[in-house]
Amino acid sequence: MTCGEPAGIGPELSVQARAILGADVPFVWLGDPRHLPPGTTWTEVRTPSDAADVPPDVLPVLTHRFAAPNTPGQPDPANAIGVIEVISRAVALVQSGAASAIVTAPLHKKALKDGAGFAFPGHTEYLAHLAGDVPVVMMLASPLLRVVPATIHIPLAGVPGALTPALLEQVIRLTHAGLIRDFGIAKPRIAVAGLNPHAGEGGAMGHEDAAVIAPVVARLAQEGMAVTGPLPADTMFHTRARARYDAAVCAYHDQALIPIKTLDFDGGVNVTLGLPFVRTSPDHGTAFDIAGKGIALPDSLVAAARMAWDMAAARSVQSSR
Fold first, then answer.
1. Is 124 helix (H, G, I), strand (E, B) or coil?
2. Which of 61, 208, 275, 296 lies 20 to 30 angstroms, CA to CA, from 219?
3. Cα–Cα distance for residue pair 60/51, rounded to 1 Å
4. 62 — phi, psi (to 5°)?
């Protein structure tokens, strides 16, 4: 579990996650122990595997020294290099087999840019770069719903142009592969949302659904994938509809994230599909306004750790076949 932005809620949530998960999901915290909340009971370990021998009420720490202490709510650009180094070190640990998964606490992009000239839009892109510039997609997952936005942080006006057949096909294929490898679903069912209201209603509300989405879905279905769409997004997320698929691929950010955040705001997990290693993250930010006050909820980080554990187990089963 990486420390994330030291001035955010990551360090305190990691301590809470250890108290909740204990030996059920043994993880090691990678960061500067000076940044942990005062009074934290922790012990230094040499390797991630040593965490299994640490009492469940003690936080195992792989120490990574930062340039400066932390002040909750006030990011220090001097610590930016340390944040980046921790991510890189975590990737090296999973790539070497010393750890089975990475759970990343939230970082602060502006602090990284100001302090270290960080050139990546965020965690996901940097992880993909460290993995060899592999194509990845973002999934938001909970026991109630899994969603994958085909386009992410772009203006709504730019979505129709960005949603190309090549992009949509790549997203569906990565989602399909991820459901098999990371979630142990042998024959994934994928529902693809339409871009326009009523999935275009035969061209009356836009041509993209028939011209872009439908041909891709049809071609992949002919290959044997259990993929359907384009479907009207307004009828995809009620209880009976969700029982018909394992993941929903959506056209744009809010079309995917509003349903899952409505259904499971505190339990949603950010999963990166396509990486050669498991990576999960809580579905929230650094929350500087409440950092250090002891009121941040650990639910999403706990869910991210549990999901990472389960995904690593699913990959192990796949690799043994």
1. helix
2. 275
3. 6
4. -95, 105
